[in-house]
Amino acid sequence: MIGYSPQKTDDYVAVSVEATPGYVVGFEPMAHADRVHHMLLYGCTMPASDQGFWRGMETCGWGGGSYILYAWARNAPNLVLPKDVAFSVGHEQDGIKYFVLQVHYAQPFAGEVHDFSGVTMHISQRKPMNLAAVMLFVSGTPIPPQLPAFQNNITCMFSSSTPIHPFAFRTHTHAMGRLVSAFFKHDGHWTKIGKRNPQWPQLFEAIPSKLTIGKGDQMSASCRFDSMDKNRTVNMGAMGVDEMCNFYMMFHYDAKMENPYPQGAICSQDHPNLMKDYPADGFELLPTRPELEHHAHQSKIPFGIVQEAIHEKLGGIKLGQVAGLAFNNQKQLLVFHRAERVWDANTFDNYNILLDKTPIKDPVILVVSFNGNQTRLDKKLGAGKFQLPHGIYVDKDDFVYTTDVGSHTVSKWKIEGEELKNIWTSGESMLPGPDQKHYCKPTGITRIGDQLYVTDGYCNSRVVVLDLNGKFVQQFGLPGEETGQFNLPHDIVSDSQGRILVTDRENGRVQHMTTQGHVIEEFKSTMFNNIYSAASHEDYVFMVPGRPIMGHESEGIAVFVGRSGAGLIEYAFGPATRGKREQMGPQFGQPHCLRVSPDGDQIFVGDIAEGKARLWQFKVQREENMSSMTSSISLGWPSLTQTDAKYNSFFVLLAFAILVLGAYCVRRRCRNLENGGTLFDKRVSRSNVGFKPLRTEETVGFISDGSESD
C-alpha cells in the first residue's frame, strides 16, 4: 500500500522516481505542518538507494550531481515559476535522471494513520528561454546559550561567467530562528536578495525587482537566532533538538549559456572580514505577522486520529445496520439505523419491489449527545414510519430529510417534542420508477440554498434536484463510468463552497461537482475500487470504502482523506488494529456512512456488517484551535488553476508496503497554470514514468463485488 507512518522522532524517509524529460514550471505541495516538518525535492544523477524507498537522510548518490528543485515547510503554498523560466529535468545535459523527495517527520502519529504527502510537479515539453536553479546558503556554526540575538553568517564569491538572476527566495530555521536574510555586493554596493521571518510559512517568496549577479560579486547570508531559553549550546543539524540556518536562492540564467553550477549550487563558507559592512537591514527584525505565524504553526503534540469508541448500543438500544448519520444544529448526532431489519438477498424481488412491506416497529432515528466516548440518548424517533432506512440529513432550519430504499421515497420531517412529524414525501411509496415522480432506491440527500439534491441511487444512477416543497426541479447524471456519469451514486454531501460531493460507489470515486452537475475534480485511487460514503470539512474530503478489493482482505479497510482542489489522497486512518485479524481487535466490517462533527474534532463511521453493526467513533488529536489551514491567506504567488489536458503532472509520494518498500508516481488530474496554459503540450502516461507501481489496495474482507445487500 502507499502511505507511511513515522516510526520515531525526527524520522527521515525518501522516495525516488525516474525523471521524464521536460521542464518543470510549477510545484504543488500536498502536506500539512501538523504531520510533516518539511519536504525537500532533489534532482539527482543517481539516487542514494536503488530500492525506490529508504529511511534516513540520504538523497542523491555519490558520483553525480545533486540539485535542489523545491522545498516546503510550515504550510507554504504552491509555487509557479515566472513565464519563460523552468527547471530542466531528465535531459543528458542537466544531470537530473531521478527525482528524490525527502520528507522529515518530527514525531510519530497517534493512532493508525498513514501519510501520503508529496509534491506535484507541473512539467512542460517546451524549452524556455531561461533555466532555473537553486543555491543553498547553509551555516554549521553552533549557537551559544542565553543570547537574545546571535548571527550565523555565510559568504561566497560568484565565479562563473554566466550571470544569474535571483527571482525567489526561501528561509528555513527551526524554532530559534527570528530572521534570515541575504544580500549580494557588486562594486562595493550591497543589494538585498531577500529577508523573511522563518517562523512564517516557508514559501519561495517572489523578489520584486530584477537582479543580476555577475562574476566577482560577493553573496552573503545571515541568520538571527534567539537562544535566551537555552542553557546549552545548540548545534546545527537535522534533528528537532538541533537548529538550521538555510537561505534558498532560486535564480535563472540564459538557457543558451553554460550552467554556472553544473554539480549543484551550495554556499557554506564563513568569512567574517567580508561581512563587516553587511547592511544593518539584514539584521533587523521584521514586524510581527500573527496571521502568518498561525498559518505556519507546527503542532507540538503528535498529529493523529485515534479510535475513541465502538458503540454497539446507544442508550440501551442495540444498533441495527447503521445506514445514515447526520449532525443537527445543536451538534447532536442523528443515527439512522435499521433496528432488526437486515438488507440481504431476500429483501427485494427482481423488480426492486420490497417483499416485506411492514414498517420497522422500533425507533430508527436515535438523537445522541457525546462527551468524549460517553453517550446520552436524547430522543428515539421514527417507529413505524420506515421500511428500510438509508440516508439522513438535517438542514440549517432543523428540518430532517430521509431516504428510504425500501419504500423508494424521500421525506421531509420536523421533530416536535418526542414525535417525528412528516412535512412531505416525494415519490410513490413501494413503487420504483425512473421518471420525475418516482425513485428507485434513493440513497442520500443534502441541501444547498433553496434546493435539495438526492442521489437516486441503485437503479437510476442520477442526482434529482427538488425545491424545499419536494417538487421536481431538474436531474443530471446517467449510468456509466465517464466523467459526470454514475454507477450507483450512494451518498451526497455539500462542501463549504456550496458544491456537491457525490459518492459514485461502484466507479470507486467521489465526484466533486457544481450544483448543475459539472465535474470540478474527482477523488479516485488504486487503493480502493468502491466508495460508500464521503464527508467534507473545511478543505478536506473524507471517504470510506464499504468492502475490500478481493484478495487483499487482510490489509484492513481505511478512511481516506483528500484535499479539495487537488483530487489526491493526503492521508488515511482506520481502527487501532487495522490490518490485523478480528481476534486481535475489531475491524471495519462494511462501512456504510461517514460524517465529521461540525468542529472537525470527531469522525463517526456507521458499519452495517451482518452481525457486527456498529458506530465507530474517532478523535482528531491536535492542539486546541488548530484546525486545518485554508487557502484564504494571500502569500504572493499565482495559483494553480483548472483542467487543461496539454501538460503533465507528477505526484511524488512516500510509499510503504508491509513486505516491499518502493516508490510510486501518480499521474494526476491535469490542471493549467496561470502563467500560460498553451505551453503544456504533452501528457505522459504511467508507462513513461520508468518504474512499476506498488500494489496499493487497502482492503478488508466482507462480501463479493457488486452485491446490493446493503
Automatic annotation (TrEMBL):
A UniProt-annotated Pfam family:
NHL
Write out the residues that bind Cu(2+) 2: M244
The answer on whether this UniProt entry bears the keyword Lyase reads yes
Cofactor: how bound: Binds 2 Cu(2+) ions per subunit.
Instruction: Tell me where in this chain the Copper type II ascorbate-dependent monooxygenase N-terminal domain is found.
Output: 20-108
Q: Where in the cell is it found?
A: Secreted
Kindly list any coiled-coil regions of this protein. none
Record-level Gene Ontology MF annotations: copper ion binding; peptidylamidoglycolate lyase activity; peptidylglycine monooxygenase activity
The catalysed reaction is: a [peptide]-C-terminal (2S)-2-hydroxyglycine = a [peptide]-C-terminal amide + glyoxylate; a [peptide]-C-terminal glycine + 2 L-ascorbate + O2 = a [peptide]-C-terminal (2S)-2-hydroxyglycine + 2 monodehydro-L-ascorbate radical + H2O
Q: Which InterPro entries match?
A: 6-blade_b-propeller_TolB-like, Cu2_ascorb_mOase-like_C, Cu2_ascorb_mOase_CS-2, Cu2_ascorb_mOase_N, Cu2_ascorb_mOase_N_sf, Cu2_monoox_C, NHL_repeat, PHM/PAL
> What's the superkingdom here?
Eukaryota
Show the stretches that span the lipid bilayer: 647-666
Q: Name one GO cellular component term.
A: membrane
Q: Which cysteines are joined by disulfide bonds?
A: C156-C267, C223-C245
List UniProt keywords, sorted A-Z.
Answer: Calcium, Copper, Disulfide bond, Glycoprotein, Lyase, Membrane, Metal-binding, Monooxygenase, Multifunctional enzyme, Oxidoreductase, Repeat, Secreted, Signal, Transmembrane, Transmembrane helix, Zinc
The UniProt annotation places Cu(2+) 1 binding at H37, H38, H104, H172, H174
Necessary cofactors: Zn(2+); Cu(2+)
One BP annotation, GO? peptide metabolic process
Q: Where does Ca(2+) bind?
A: L653
Q: Which PANTHER family match?
A: PEPTIDYL-GLYCINE ALPHA-AMIDATING MONOOXYGENASE
Name the family.
Answer: In the N-terminal section; belongs to the copper type II ascorbate-dependent monooxygenase family. In the C-terminal section; belongs to the peptidyl-alpha-hydroxyglycine alpha-amidating lyase family.
Name this polypeptide is given: Peptidylglycine monooxygenase
